[in-house]
Amino acid sequence: MNKLHQIQDEQLVELFIKGSNGAVSELLFRHKDRLYRYVFSLVHSKELTEDFFQDTFIKAITMIKQGKYSHQGFFFTWLSTIAHNLVIDYFRKVKNENAISHDEVEYDLFSSVALAEINVQDSIIQKNTNEEIAYLVSLLPDDQKEIIDLRFFQDLSFKEIAVTLNVSINTALGRIRYAILNLRKLAKTHQLLDYQLQ
Hints:
mainly alpha; Rna Polymerase Sigma Factor, Chain: A
């Protein structure tokens, strides 16, 4: 019988759904360091990082039990999305309550270039049908598929993507460039979408 550490994430999720506490323990152990680094890159606070870190795993476990895990093939991407959304919701709430000023934080999460920039690729994602885009993205290699998901559908900055994937920012930029080039070729080959990626 295979050891849990030799089993893929998706299989561990299935085992957990069937009642294996060891499976979820393995998932937590496998991704805890990477998730911690990712959350810390967002909040720059050890105390907040620990809170979001715990809340992320609690929410993930709850969602899996409720049958809401649907990010097949990219468990950590799904996990980091939960963390990202928790952080965004927290800072939005704090900001709305006027309980924190810009002088009290190192940066303004809502004015980051990643969330505010409007470029060719963003406008493409926004103006074309989700069905065609989803189909084309599904044809990409896994690493490019994942980075497209992180960048365009989850609004992560390249810095956040680099931390999430444990690669350099230059590597993240390179992957997105090749992914965009591949999407252009695929769109032309399959005669889908009324645009050309620039």
